[in-house]
């Protein structure tokens, strides 16, 4: 498949996808302490169970009594009621959450909001059925995203061999994609594996071979494609019969269009079965109830050349009746014979010529636009758009399908010119339809600028493919496929974009993916690198926009998050047959807004989060403070942070050692100097979010 066709899509168009990234930063500053709970709930693959005491527990807003709806909405049910509350001498407090999850072997986290420092590490049992080992690492910086990983798993018996290589590269001067795939599916001569691959054996009976190859060539003014596809059915489906054929060719004349058609086919007279003694169980009452009664008699339709002429005029004359013009149908060859009772053979070659229909088509389109209450076009505007539609030039459209003796073969050749005016008309209509949607304004503007740049640079994208599949003598299915995409004049296209204010000079992308079988295992390796100005800022903007659009619970937090200036995010994942380890961190340049405007209303803020395993318990400490006054138990109860099951300790009481956040591990993990600051990062949320970010940014180049 093509990696890029030269069209730039704004990242703003993928905000709904990027909303998933919201967990990355939302959890990092207000719920990093709940990572254990999030890990279990969000990632089934890692099988780290969590109990009802997990600090992340969606509170039912209807069960929380509060006189401060805004505070409740800000809380969003992020924290459940704590097991303990420890008051401090300065009037602040520490919420303590405990979890006795035995599947977690290592648990450390720390986030000091006031200093913008955080880090999280969690390791637990890997109980997946498959024997999987691998690692994944991703880093998001201000203007660069990199990710690489490898995975090794046991080779299933259904897959005999696999070899996949995919690469893509986009710089200021080039844009290309290559893929090469080979797969051998099935167990070969191994009887045990053959039993497990019964579906493949059945599929092998369905076809002897299938293949397709072709090419697509696109510029800003022309579209062309040609290719072929064929299938040879297996003995299970193959049936003897006459060789059938359907072919047509459409071309444009000076004042109309010409369609040449050739048909060779077998026709069944379903309605004739009743006359031949077949009882369908339905009384013939003038075709009112008989499902076959409304079928036209093939002899009446095609028995003579005169009948065929009348039938074709009825079929192809409707367009002329609707919009005007003239249609002429000329039959070049006609043959019709009965093969057996209720079965006929038809041969027909004919030419259809439409003249003078463009004017009628323009009138019909203009009338439709004027009558559209959403578009509000004047008659003059509608007529101008309608005339753009008919500027499309059809050089040729050819298609042919042949079948017979259990084989099908299709070929096509299409060439269309001057479609730019048609796209411009489409944009004008779309802009009118969405004129009240401000979100689309930038999208339409960028589309127009992009298309103009493609025209000016004569950008040309060529895509080619070749695919072949067939069963082997031992009942396996062999698949070979190649695909390439290349773009000419890409450097000129980038310059034209820059001239129009669309800066892509610093945008670069490199992608490499391989998968292969060796020694009874499947090995998967991948690498991705994306360079783009203000990449981290763009990602955070997408996050916060998604939070505001998709989540009432986190929406009040999103605006403050947008001001925190994400600079660096990193995640590492390691998996072996017994353990999965996740470590993550992030760096924000400015978290004052997060301190001043927290998740719990105007005055109650989270100042620090820490976590560790103590005496076979996973313990999370969330330090909170009221910037206006001392903490109030009533306020905490109203917010659902404590309840009657929470043990409350006054300053100095209790035997538990209250852990504090450590900044050294965060700085070491992110490879920062000691003076650099970082902020929190939700572990599993980070993993999912980094992956989503890659998808989002890839989508920008498609």
Q: How is this structure best described in words?
A:
With 702 residues, the protein is of the alpha+beta class. The chain has a 25-stranded mixed sheet. Strand 1 and strand 2 (93-99) form a beta hairpin. Helix 11 (379-389) packs antiparallel against helix 12. It is elongated.
Produce the secondary structure layout.
Layout: H1 15-18, H2 22-30, H3 35-42, H4 69-75, E1 84-87, E2 93-99, E3 104-112, E4 117-125, E5 132-140, E6 144-154, E7 159-170, E8 175-185, H5 191-196, H6 198-206, E9 207-219, E10 222-233, E11 244-253, E12 256-268, H7 298-302, H8 305-316, H9 318-323, E13 326-340, E14 343-355, H10 357-371, H11 379-389, E15 393-404, E16 407-417, H12 420-433, H13 439-457, E17 460-471, E18 477-488, H14 490-499, E19 508-518, E20 521-531, H15 535-550, H16 552-562, E21 566-575, E22 579-588, H17 592-596, E23 604-614, E24 617-626, H18 633-638, E25 647-649, H19 664-669, H20 683-700
Parallel strand pairs: 1-25
Antiparallel strand pairs: 1-2, 2-24, 3-4, 3-23, 4-22, 5-6, 5-21, 6-20, 7-8, 7-19, 8-18, 9-10, 9-17, 10-16, 11-12, 11-15, 12-14, 13-14, 15-16, 17-18, 19-20, 21-22, 23-24
Helix pairs in contact: 2-20, 10-11, 11-12, 13-14, 15-16
């Amino acid at each position: 498949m093509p990696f890029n066709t030269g069209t730039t899509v704004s990242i703003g168009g993928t905000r709904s996808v990027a909303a998933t990234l919201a967990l990355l930063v939302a959890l990092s500053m207000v719920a990093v302490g709940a990572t254990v709970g999030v890990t279990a709930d969000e990632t089934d693959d890692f099988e780290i169970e969590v109990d009802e005491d997990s600090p992340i527990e969606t509170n039912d807003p209807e069960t929380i009594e509060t006189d401060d709806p805004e505070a409740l909405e800000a809380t969003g049910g992020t924290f459940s009621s704590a097991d303990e509350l420890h008051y401090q001498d300065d009037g602040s407090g520490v919420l303590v959450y405990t979890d006795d999850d035995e599947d977690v072997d290592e648990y450390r986290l720390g986030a000091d909001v006031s200093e913008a420092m955080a880090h999280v590490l969690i390791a637990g049992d890997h109980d997946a059925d498959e024997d999987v080992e691998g690692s994944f690492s991703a880093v998001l910086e201000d203007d660069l995203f990199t990710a690489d990983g490898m995975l090794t798993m046991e080779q299933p018996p259904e897959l005999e061999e696999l070899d996949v290589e995919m690469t893509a590269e986009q710089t200021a001067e080039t844009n290309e994609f290559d893929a090469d795939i080979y797969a051998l599916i099935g167990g070969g001569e191994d009887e045990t594996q053959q039993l497990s691959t019964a579906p493949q054996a059945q599929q092998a009976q369905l076809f002897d071979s299938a293949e397709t190859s072709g090419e697509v060539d696109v510029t800003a003014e022309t579209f062309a494609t040609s290719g072929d596809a064929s299938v040879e059915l297996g003995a299970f489906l193959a049936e003897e019969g006459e060789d059938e054929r359907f072919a047509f060719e459409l071309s444009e004349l000076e004042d109309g269009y010409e369609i040449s058609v050739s048909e060779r086919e077998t026709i069944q007279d379903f309605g004739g079965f009743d006359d031949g003694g077949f009882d369908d169980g339905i009384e013939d009452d003038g075709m009112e109830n008989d499902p076959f009664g409304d079928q036209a008699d093939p002899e009446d339709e095609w028995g003579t050349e005169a009948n065929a002429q009348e039938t074709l005029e009825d079929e192809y004359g409707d367009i002329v009746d609707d919009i005007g013009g003239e249609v002429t149908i000329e039959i070049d060859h006609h043959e019709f014979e009965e093969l057996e009772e209720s079965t006929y053979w038809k041969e027909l070659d004919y030419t259809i010529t439409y003249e003078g229909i463009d004017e009628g088509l323009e009138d019909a389109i203009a009338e439709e636009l004027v009558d559209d209450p959403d578009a509000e076009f004047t008659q003059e505007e509608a007529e101008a758009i309608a005339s753009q539609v008919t500027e499309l030039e059809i050089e040729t459209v050819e298609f042919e399908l042949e079948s017979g003796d259990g084989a099908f073969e299709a070929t096509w050749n299409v060439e269309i010119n001057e479609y730019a005016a048609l796209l411009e008309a489409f944009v004008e209509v779309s802009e009118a339809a969405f004129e009240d949607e401000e979100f689309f304004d930038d999208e339409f503007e960028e589309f127009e600028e992009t298309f103009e740049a493609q025209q000016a640079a004569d950008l040309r994208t060529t895509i080619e493919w070749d695919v072949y599949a067939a069963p082997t003598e031992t009942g396996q299915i062999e698949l070979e496929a190649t695909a390439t995409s290349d773009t000419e004049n890409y450097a000129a296209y980038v310059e034209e974009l820059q001239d129009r204010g669309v800066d892509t000079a610093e945008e670069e992308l490199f992608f490499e993916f391989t998968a292969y079988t060796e020694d009874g295992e499947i090995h998967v390796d991948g690498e991705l690198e994306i360079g783009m100005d203000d990449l981290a800022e763009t990602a955070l903007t997408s996050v916060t926009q998604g939070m505001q659009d998709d989540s009432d619970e986190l929406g009040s937090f999103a605006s403050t998050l947008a001001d925190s200036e994400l600079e660096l995010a990193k995640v590492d994942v390691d998996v072996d047959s017994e353990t999965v380890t996740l470590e993550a961190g992030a760096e924000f340049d400015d978290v004052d807004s997060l301190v001043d405007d927290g998740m719990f209303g105007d005055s109650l803020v989270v100042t620090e989060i820490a976590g560790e395993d103590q005496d076979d318990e996973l313990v999370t400490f969330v330090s909170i403070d009221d910037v206006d006054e001392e903490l109030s138990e009533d306020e905490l109860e109203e917010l659902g942070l404590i309840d009657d099951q929470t043990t409350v300790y006054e300053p100095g009481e209790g035997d538990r050692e209250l852990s504090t956040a450590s900044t050294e591990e965060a700085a070491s993990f992110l490879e920062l100097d000691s003076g650099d600051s970082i902020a929190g990062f939700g572990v599993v949320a980070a993993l999912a979010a980094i992956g989503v970010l890659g998808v989002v940014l890839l989508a920008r180049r498609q």
